[in-house]
Amino acid sequence: MEADPIPMIQMQLAFAISILGVYFGWRGVIAKMTGFYDLSGAVRYLLYGIVAGVFLALAVDQLILSVILEESTSSQISIPLLAIFSFSLLIGAGESSFVLFLVGRPGVASIRASPPFGWALGLGLGSMQSAYLIVRLFDSNPSGLAALSSVAGFNTYSIALASLISILSSLGHALPATWQGNQLIGGSRVVPLIISTFVRASIAICLVLSIIKPIFSILILPFVILFWFRAQEIWLPSGLTPAARQAFRRTIRQSELHKKRADDRIRGESLESEE
Hints:
By secondary structure, the chain is mainly α. It has one domain (about 10-240). The protein has 10 helices and no strands. It has helices spanning about 10-25, 30, 40-70, 80-105, 105-110, 115-140, 155-185, 190-210, 220-235, 240-265. The termini are far apart.
């Protein structure tokens, strides 16, 4: 079942919302690590993820979503689990291998930049996959997704769901990519490749089903919330040397102290400094 073109303004909004996940994902520790790693390299890997994410998103759209739409009718949703899971594993394996290839390059591994570069790469991959799904979601053609989904079309509910999908997709792909980078520093490649493949396959299926039944998006929330803190506190800083990690934590503490003092000071008074 082919998706009919949606109005250009909706198409632009769909891609704008998909970038929301990148913004949200960049607001954590990685935004505070400027100066402690190669920021230009992270931006380059973000662009790699955006470009590669287009092709991975097309695979998800054609091999998972289109299969569901073709097998379903307006009165019944049919999900061929064996075919869907097989295709999702294939896509997940391709993405995991691509991430391992990029974050495991000698020039990246030698400077211990695999975790932050993996995070940026995952954000790009996830944003493009969410863009395809949001375009599908905004399609109000009765012969398309609207025949199966109660929120399909361009409305308040679909925009809210699109925003949630953007965040979940970007973080859902950034987390395993960062973990692969973290494990790579420890010398582990094969096991993280296998585990991240199953994680990505599950995320792809849940995201596709969420535009049909939004309840499926809730299945990704525990994973994102649980591992978000682990990524911020352990995986991302693991790329720093012990001395750099100590300096980074000291910088974070000082910035929080300065912010508190700035918020508490009376206007017109100078801000005290320990220096």
